[in-house]
Specification:
It contains 13 helices and seven strands. The protein is α/β, with parallel strands linked by helices and 295 residues long. Helix 8 packs antiparallel against helix 9. It has a five-stranded parallel β-sheet, with helices on both faces. The protein has three domains: 72 residues, Multidrug-efflux Transporter Regulator, Chain: A, Domain 2, CATH 1.10.1660; 84 residues, Methionine synthase domain (Methyltransferase, Methionine Synthase (B12-binding Domains), Chain A, domain 1); 118 residues, Cobalamin-binding domain (Rossmann fold, 3-Layer(aba) Sandwich), CATH 3.40.50.280. It starts with 7 loop residues before the first helix and ends with a helix.
Length: 295
């Protein structure tokens, strides 16, 4: 039933999972992200209970908890949304976000983001609402409906949400390592952050370097980490040339290292030595995760 919430005691009784284990799975593996009451008690919804029940079944059949968590997250990302989820996945009107930006209303922005993320997986919210909403926010600025400071105000709130989701999904210690970041001069970060969260939710140990990473820093991190693969985000066409130089450099130094590129500027003819990822952030994460889990 939509809107129903359960306490940790109720979930423990319904699933047979001790309360301490429920808390540990949340803290260590990010399988669920229960809401909090005004008194800071955990409140689980039906989807949380479904995920926990699935994980408990895997663990009871001998699957290590860390691997079970990865399988639950993968199954959640891949399953088709229900009709209710499709309706919820449309999210709140983007006009609500624009109005909140115009007023610099932090509470309103948080409420809009809460509504957008409620009741669906991170993957569904990311591609079904968040990325299109940010695009429309940029168009509002282009039309003169929004000052650039208002756009940055919302961007900062979204950045905080993505950073929290990234922390909740990891760190997946002992899993294959992927190095993710942007080439020198590339600054548009949100698509890459969303990808990094999705990849972590696929059970990969993601080391996220962020935006505008110098060539020598990429080379240093590859030498230091010896990752299973490298993902270079090329968000804009103007980022293609520095990305091409970076790909050439890394490919020459590490010819066996899998290199992936993605984003609007990832023109394959100029990025030889790399593999082009699907345009869908979620599908891109699944592509990299499958390859790295295969070893």
């Amino acid at each position: 039933m939509p809107g129903v919430r359960y306490t940790v005691k109720q979930v423990a009784e319904a699933t047979g999972i001790p309360a301490a284990t429920l808390r540990a799975w949340e803290r260590r593996y990010g399988v669920v992200e229960p809401q909090r009451s005004s008194s800071q008690y955990r409140l689980y919804d039906e989807e949380d209970v479904r995920r926990l029940t699935h994980m408990a079944e895997l663990v009871r059949h001998g699957t290590p908890a860390s691997l079970a968590a990865t399988q639950v997250r993968s199954a959640d990302a891949e399953r088709a949304p229900t009709e209710a989820e499709r309706r919820t996945g449309l999210g709140p009107p983007v006009a609500d976000l624009i109005r909140a930006a115009q007023r610099y209303d932090d509470t309103a922005v948080s409420q809009v983001l809460d509504r957008a993320l409620a009741g669906v997986s991170f993957e569904q919210a990311l591609e079904g609402w968040l990325m299109p909403a940010l695009t429309e926010l940029g168009r509002a600025w282009e039309r003169g409906e929004l000052d650039v400071s208002g756009e940055h105000f919302v961007s900062a709130a979204v950045h905080r949400r993505l950073a929290s989701a990234f922390d909740a999904a990891g760190p997946n210690s002992g899993a294959p390592v992927a190095l993710v970041g942007l080439p020198p001069g590339a600054l548009h970060l949100f698509g890459t952050m969303g990808f990094a969260v999705c990849l972590r939710r696929q059970g990969i140990d993601v080391r996220f370097l962020g935006a505008d990473v110098p060539h020598e820093s990429w080379e240093h991190s590859v030498d230091a980490l010896r990752p299973g693969g490298v993902v270079i985000s090329v968000p804009m066409p103007r980022d293609t040339a520095p990305a091409a130089r970076l790909v050439d450099s890394l490919h020459a130094a590490h010819p066996q290292l899998p290199l992936w590129v993605g984003g609007h500027g990832a023109a394959t003819e100029r990025l030889r030595g790399s593999r082009r990822l699907p345009d869908s952030v979620v599908e891109a994460a699944r592509t990299v995760a499958r390859r790295l889990h295969q070893g």
